[in-house]
Amino acid sequence: MLKLKKYHIFSVAYIYLCLPVLIFFSGWLRLYLGLSLSALLLISLFFIIRSARQDEKGIIEIPLSVLFIAALIIFLWCILSGQGGFYYQSNDWHYRNAIFHDLINFSWPVVYPKTGAGLVYYIAHWLPAALVGKLLGWQAGNVALLFWTFTGIYLTFVLLYSFLKVDTKKKAYFLLIVLILFSGLDFIGSMYMQIRNGTPIPLHLEWWGTPSQYSSNTTQLMWVFNQSVAPWLLTVLLLNQKKLSNIGMLTVLVMPFAPLPFFGFAPIAAAIAVKRLIELIKQRKTSQILKEIFTPQNIIGLFAVFPVFYFYYTANVQAQHSGINSFDLSEILTTLIPFLLLEFLVYTLVIFKRYKNDYLFIFINLMLLIIPFIRIGEAQDFTMRASIPALFILMIYVIRFVFDEIREKKRISLHVLMIIILLTIGSITPFTEQYRAIRSIVTDGIVADVADSIKTLSNSSDENSNFLCVNPDNSFFYRYLAKQKK
Predict the structure, then answer these.
(1) What does the DSSP assignment read for 400-434?
(2) Is the N-terminal amide bond of 109 cis, ω within 30° of 0?
(3) Closest Cα to residue 117, out of 315, 355, 268, 305?
């Protein structure tokens, strides 16, 4: 049995999340600004770690065999999702790899000489590996990216292990399996659409609910790892917060990695903050409120980190498009309601009785009901990515439900059996993702079926504005914050 000090794990997680931001500040911003903000972030990190040392004094006891097997399985999960370039990569990797190439091959900030466009995308997850790539080349950069992604997920697993108070190997492996296989019932949804419209069941099951999609964890890792790994880790850190001392900084740290999940994370953080404030007010500890809110890390997050990434992302043309998704009555009845039911409500209905008085459980379910109606950008990315934190918390509630039911009833109850059936049906989605990979490998005869046909965005212009600032000179970020090209 290995005994780990909680605050050590929390500290490593905070360093993991702050390092890419430090790299961005030093590599993308003007010298005086980059140095100043880097110093402020390091000060913030110091206070966050000090807070963790004060608040997280317990011990995490994990069997060595669990740590080893979990590491092995998570590492394999990363490889099978395309990390490192040793296995099949989904279609989105063509652009992911192009971005990674450009981060390695071009000076920072990336402004393409041929078109004059600047790279504006969710690049934080790549930055540590891109530094390795600049020093040692493309292959080394890919290996570094594999280990960087693995580290984020492994930290998430260990913190989940602690948060859920796992006390047996069986629970640990159940947690690991659900983390990898958690999904909505996309196969049932695809069958429904086949019966209703004659639509063939696709190899990418999650498009059945178009225009809405709530992605499984494996789908996120295979398609949008740069937007999911850090939000998973930050969500677990958020749930572990006993005070408000770090909550503002944790919320802001989502932005460098994933601005759309930020919109799903911030309301959850606000709900947790309101709950804490109500508790302090009831206890007549008003002075404690000010101490917890106005910490150096929260202030630095709000006034130093947030503005930089706000101006960076709003330089992208896609950020200018937002609105409400409208559904007519027929769409609501035939598409939206089945989507909501099969993607998350089936789980909610089974565990509702136990958590009906849990404010956070109710809140995330309300969010998941509302998110499909909101649009930022021209596509439906908001629905797919803003839902990541709430879906991850729902997964945690599902795991906790199984643990609590078995502990109290000393057996597998009917409700636990129902959850296991739902999880099994949901697992068809990640297995189908892997079936598509195997099918492609067999067809092409290549195991390392790397999606790298684009190579660079240097020849792109406004048709790929999802990744670019077409006119950097007209954006606040590139005019006043970014390093100037000689």
Answers:
(1) HHHHHHHHHHSS--HHHHHHHHHHHHHTHHHHHHH
(2) yes
(3) 315
Domain ranges of the chain: 2-174+294-314+450-481
Cβ pair 460, 101 in contact under 8 A: no
Q: Give the tokens for residue 259.
A: 């601005």
Distance (Å, whole) CA 30 – CA 82:
34
Q: What are phi and psi of 285, to 5 degrees?
A: -110, 55
CB atoms within 10 A of CB 30: 13
What is the three-class DSSP state of 460? Answer: coil
Burial of 69 (0-12, 13-18, 19+ CB in 10 A): middle
Residue 365 CA to residue 391 CA, distance in Å, equals 9
The CA–CA distances, whole Å, from 141 to 15, 132, 138, 454 equal 20, 5, 5, 18
Distance CA 469, CA 316 (A): 5
459: confidence class by pLDDT, cuts 50, 70, 90 = confident
Local structure of 376: helix, strand or coil: strand
Residues whose CB is less than 8 angstroms from the CB of residue 263 and which lie 6 or more positions away in sequence, other chains included: 376, 382, 386
Q: How far is residue 455 CA from its own chain's centroid?
A: 25
pLDDT digits (tens, 9 = 90+) for 315-358: 886 655 566 777 778 888 889 999 999 999 999 999 999 999 99
Q: What is the DSSP letter of 301?
A: I
Report the alpha-carbon distance of residue 282 to residue 261 in Å, rounded. 32
Packing angle of the helix pair 388-409, 359-370 (nearest 10 deg): 140
pTM: 0.96
- Beta carbons within 8 Å of 117's beta carbon, 6+ residues apart: 111, 457, 460, 461, 468, 469, 470, 471, 472
User: Tell me: the pLDDT tens digits for 403-427?
Assistant: 999 999 888 899 999 999 999 999 9
Q: Say how far apart CA 124 and CA 121 lie, in whole Å.
A: 9
